[in-house]
Amino acid sequence: MGVEHFYRVPGLSYGALSSKLEAIRSVCNDVVTLETEACYNVEVLSPLTESEERKLHFILSSPFKPEALTRSTHLQDLSSSTLIEVGPRLNFSTPFSTNAVAICGKIGLHKIVRLELSIRYLIKWSNRVPEDTIRKKIVDALHDRMTECEYQRPISSFNHGIVPDKWGIVDVMRQGRAALEGVNDRLGLALDDWDLNYYTKLFVDKLQRNPTTVECFDLAQSNSEHSRHWFFRGLMKINGEEKSLSLIDMIISTQNHSNPNNTIKFSDNSSAIKGYTVDVMQPEKVDEPSGFLKCSKSLDIVFTAETHNFPTGVAPFSGATTGTGGRIRDVQAVGRGGLCIAGTAGYSVGNLHIPGYQQPWEDPTLKYPENFAPPLNVIIEASNGASDYGNKFGEPLINGFTRSFGQVNDGQRREWVKPIMFSGGIGCMDATMINKEIPKKGMKIIKVGGPVYRIGVGGGAASSVQVQGDNQAELDFGAVQRGDAEMENKMNRVIRACIENRSGNPLKSIHDQGAGGNGNVLKEIAEPEGAVIFTNAFSLGDESINTLELWGAEYQESNAALVDEADRNFFNKVEKRERCKVDFVGTITGNGKVILTEEDWMDDKDYLNNSPSVEKIMHPFNLELDVVLGKMPRKVFDMQDEPLLLKELSLSLNLKVYDALERVLRLLSVCSKRFLTNKVDRCVTGLIAQQQCVGPLHTPLSDYAITALTMFDTVGAATSIGEQPIKGLISAGAGARMSVAEAITNLMFAKISSLQDVKCSGNWMWAAKLPGEGAALYRACEAMCQVMGELGVAVDGGKDSLSMAARVDGNTVKAPGTIVISTYAPCPDIRQKVTPDLKGPACGEKGIILWITTSDELRLGGTALAQCYSQIGNEVPDLDYPSKLRVGFEITQHLIAGNLIKAGHDISDGGLVTCLLEMAFGGLSGLDIDLPKSSDPISTLFAEEVGWVLEVAESHLNEVVSAYNAGSIKCLRIGQSVGYGVDSLVKIRCGSTNLIEDKLSHFFQLGKRPVSN
């Protein structure tokens, strides 16, 4: 085999070239010019013929500039220049290569086995060529070291010299716990003292044999915090008091106060609620070309949410793509198969430190670890990754959040050095397919999707390391994955073909592959009956993969399913049609064991018959499912409350509203989010009734998102998000209550079936095992559950990430404890909704502005204002009266049904003034606001108490105000919307004092995105 090279100019688009040039100049400013070319590195089994080369030239070249692709380089390396080539790491094929090789195969170029794209940079200098230390920094600036490397010479072979390691025996029978400690360190298994003692006893006393390295690796992944959720299921002791309920018990109890509309909860890859019976379109035949039929189906509404924090911190783009892909597979794998509709996303990062845009609340002296990407890179590249994956897969991204924070208070640094990458998804499923079938002896296990790659090895355990940075850096890199959205789309079409098959869905059960790889998903799908799995039945993307890697790698775009042998022909036809691998890798044996065997002949008869010969073979994995997945002793967590050292918020008595507003509008959680929405598809599928952008300029402001279930009806589902982690630094309970309140006030303006029909996914990101944090999380959970009970909403699923801390220069930096509440609920009519953009002036009318609040307090602790002055404070906004929010929600829903509200927006980050300005931005409208004379302007405008603002027509004013008054909800008329266009005026007064008076365009520029990508 050899590698042939083809070169194309230019290598980068103008925008990408400018970005790279800026990166180089940040290291060394002596650059005169930067030229680039792309290099296609084509691995061939034998030299290409002239005819084959013409074919390859055709598919690699631009149709309008075929001459730009040549066999020789376009760049000449001179004495005053530096040539640097950067490409993907050689140890695994990229998605580009996978798809390119597949295309080559379809046009007869079977000699081509790998095709990677590298970029060559020719840097010309004004003076002498920089020394080697500068060159190294430039190389670092040009590539992502997690997924790319420098090619110091043209590639002549993709052979990375890796010889598959044989799995081995861990000698606990002679060495005891020390043997497990050795493999724990060597493989980065993240086993704690409890784990090491438990497994030593298991093998020495109960099984009375040595484990294999594959079994040790598997146990670490299958029983990691990431997979088992030990903390949420554990026995809690706080300040010596044993708690009667675990965290998960408390969360499940929220269901007692809500309508019983869940069809799936706490038991599957996603949750589901009752939807509607609608007409849908589906093909007459799914395994060959055919016409479409219109038929009636009962569709339930599906929701799931998860985070992908550790991989995104290490490699932001790849981490976010695979986080999005994993969440999509959670929807696919619900029941006996689900269909994706739309996604949501969220990002929490540290201080951005944008070059040339340093903010006064960002401390430039704080350092960041080398094994994590800096926050600015994370917010740009992670959002690029999530957007890119959804765009390529064909899923719109329609709602989200973003936040930046980093402070040092009393010597303790709190910052998202380890970031949050949140991904949620809404979908639907046939109501007749909610229950997975129980495995039966003789059923076949299939793997659907992409081939096995040596990527993501040990991700579950790596994500569970208590403080990121305690693991070896190379093990961290090895745990990062890569995404291939095109393969996910192919797999999705296979699953959809099964769901829509008019002869019946052949999928008896389906699970997505996530943490723990094949080891986890194949055991889960075989539970409790057991199975034999054949290593030689898997399609490999890299022939050097060893058995441990095959069993534990978290390669993406792969699901497992149970099917009958009789359906093998169906899957062969669908596999060929959709160009997606369907591997029959195992058989349900009925003996309660999972055996991974390396036998060449792949005959399952001996395993089905429990032949004694099976046990005579030394298998890499051979364990009873009860040992691995069965009920294990609960872990005990003994925690203490730690006193919070809070200081009163100290702001200048002469602080002007203008000055405060200039800071607040630049904060990431407040500023314009166009940098997130402009690059992502928000309406593909034709089912999106409301996405982020509203008003004449498509300003990203919407509080909620709405999807239809079908193109033939106006029923659907709404979803919203709430998270208030900075308030949680003052009071964990208040932070949780305000997160729930924000989710509900965001959902308020979409007309739903009932508040009691609202179900929530709760996602927890906390450094829970560090001093004081576990107790804080418990307090937050108690508060969340209590307020949900009073509101009548409930949690039906969620995930946790409990290692939200990173090591920086030997110090532990904890991320702010975060709970993200994602609501979803049925919408009887997706057309009944209210958006934030002011509408009166555009119609030549005067809109009346109403301020509805549930509290008489005006607390500034934990607000955007406090953060912008490098403080947190000690008095935090809170949901003091949940009943007022419940009543206010129901009144607002009634008014929406009566078409009595023109615009509406919740008060959140940035307070009342931000809420008003955002409504003005959305509607290109001016404002004339009079605050109550007795109020303190700063507190009134910047407090983030639970409330909302409405624009109503003057003719509806009395009816709207009367409705709120009847419910004892405070409703104040504070002004009107006047003037249309960017030059319209925004005026805010308090009594006779003018607080703000300027053109709308001035404030719009202040809030323009601080992030550029």
TrEMBL record:
<dbReference type="Pfam" id="PF22689">
    <property type="entry name" value="FGAR-AT_PurM_N-like"/>
</dbReference>
<dbReference type="Pfam" id="PF18076">
    <property type="entry name" value="FGAR-AT_N"/>
</dbReference>
<dbReference type="InterPro" id="IPR036921">
    <property type="entry name" value="PurM-like_N_sf"/>
</dbReference>
<keyword id="KW-0315">Glutamine amidotransferase</keyword>
<dbReference type="InterPro" id="IPR010073">
    <property type="entry name" value="PurL_large"/>
</dbReference>
<dbReference type="InterPro" id="IPR036676">
    <property type="entry name" value="PurM-like_C_sf"/>
</dbReference>
<keyword id="KW-0658">Purine biosynthesis</keyword>
<dbReference type="InterPro" id="IPR040707">
    <property type="entry name" value="FGAR-AT_N"/>
</dbReference>
<keyword id="KW-0436">Ligase</keyword>
<comment type="pathway">
    <text>Purine metabolism; IMP biosynthesis via de novo pathway; 5-amino-1-(5-phospho-D-ribosyl)imidazole from N(2)-formyl-N(1)-(5-phospho-D-ribosyl)glycinamide: step 1/2.</text>
</comment>
<dbReference type="InterPro" id="IPR010918">
    <property type="entry name" value="PurM-like_C_dom"/>
</dbReference>
<dbReference type="GO" id="GO:0004642">
    <property type="term" value="F:phosphoribosylformylglycinamidine synthase activity"/>
</dbReference>
<comment type="function">
    <text>Phosphoribosylformylglycinamidine synthase involved in the purines biosynthetic pathway. Catalyzes the ATP-dependent conversion of formylglycinamide ribonucleotide (FGAR) and glutamine to yield formylglycinamidine ribonucleotide (FGAM) and glutamate.</text>
</comment>
<feature type="domain" description="PurM-like C-terminal">
    <location>
        <begin position="440"/>
        <end position="596"/>
    </location>
</feature>
<keyword id="KW-0479">Metal-binding</keyword>
<keyword id="KW-0597">Phosphoprotein</keyword>
<comment type="similarity">
    <text>In the N-terminal section; belongs to the FGAMS family.</text>
</comment>
<feature type="domain" description="PurM-like C-terminal">
    <location>
        <begin position="852"/>
        <end position="979"/>
    </location>
</feature>
<dbReference type="GO" id="GO:0005524">
    <property type="term" value="F:ATP binding"/>
</dbReference>
<keyword id="KW-0067">ATP-binding</keyword>
<dbReference type="GO" id="GO:0005737">
    <property type="term" value="C:cytoplasm"/>
</dbReference>
<protein>
    <recommendedName>
        <fullName>Phosphoribosylformylglycinamidine synthase</fullName>
        <ecNumber>6.3.5.3</ecNumber>
    </recommendedName>
</protein>
<dbReference type="GO" id="GO:0046872">
    <property type="term" value="F:metal ion binding"/>
</dbReference>
<dbReference type="InterPro" id="IPR055181">
    <property type="entry name" value="FGAR-AT_PurM_N-like"/>
</dbReference>
<keyword id="KW-0963">Cytoplasm</keyword>
<dbReference type="InterPro" id="IPR041609">
    <property type="entry name" value="PurL_linker"/>
</dbReference>
<keyword id="KW-0460">Magnesium</keyword>
<feature type="domain" description="Phosphoribosylformylglycinamidine synthase N-terminal">
    <location>
        <begin position="38"/>
        <end position="152"/>
    </location>
</feature>
<feature type="domain" description="FGAR-AT PurM N-terminal-like">
    <location>
        <begin position="672"/>
        <end position="826"/>
    </location>
</feature>
<dbReference type="Pfam" id="PF02769">
    <property type="entry name" value="AIRS_C"/>
</dbReference>
<dbReference type="GO" id="GO:0006189">
    <property type="term" value="P:'de novo' IMP biosynthetic process"/>
</dbReference>
<dbReference type="Pfam" id="PF18072">
    <property type="entry name" value="FGAR-AT_linker"/>
</dbReference>
<keyword id="KW-0547">Nucleotide-binding</keyword>
<dbReference type="InterPro" id="IPR036604">
    <property type="entry name" value="PurS-like_sf"/>
</dbReference>
<feature type="domain" description="Phosphoribosylformylglycinamidine synthase linker">
    <location>
        <begin position="181"/>
        <end position="229"/>
    </location>
</feature>
